[in-house]
Amino acid sequence: MRVDGTLENRSQPISFIDRLTSSEGFSMLFREGMTLVEDAAAYLDGEGREEAKALPRAASLAYAAESMRLTTRLMQIASWLLLQRAVGQGEMTRSQAASERHRVKLSRQDLASNAEVFGALPEKLRQLTIHSMRLQARVIHLDQLIYAPTADTFENSSPVGQQLARLRDAFSAGI
Asked: By C-alpha distance, which of 34, 42, 114, 25 is closest to 78?
């Protein structure tokens, strides 16, 4: 709708993906991610270091491994969030971000392979780990939505897609 109240003829749908990185929802996700990075860093450099010293040897090794996985996961998340924020603020185009995206390795990580070992870790480390995994799952989902191949890409790269495009064109021409 125009400012004067009349309807505007739009032939293209609004892309919510293009508007995502400048939305309030993304801002909240960004703040959550950066706060989690700060909280984890403060914990691992302070209270966590002291808790790790008090652990038995096996639990201490599990703590070291889990804290490294946590740090890696959070750096992946932060890198992705910063890249998307640059797009939202107009510092990069979506295509530039897509070409830089290969440097950010978003990969799902499971909890420690042994639930008993994970349960022996300090509570704060477990909370940070679970929170980071939930946040990572949301980021991966958004990444897949943003960078999913478009219908045009599918139609141009697949014989089936090309046939579907021809059928669509044939039936829409008479309408």
From this structure: 34
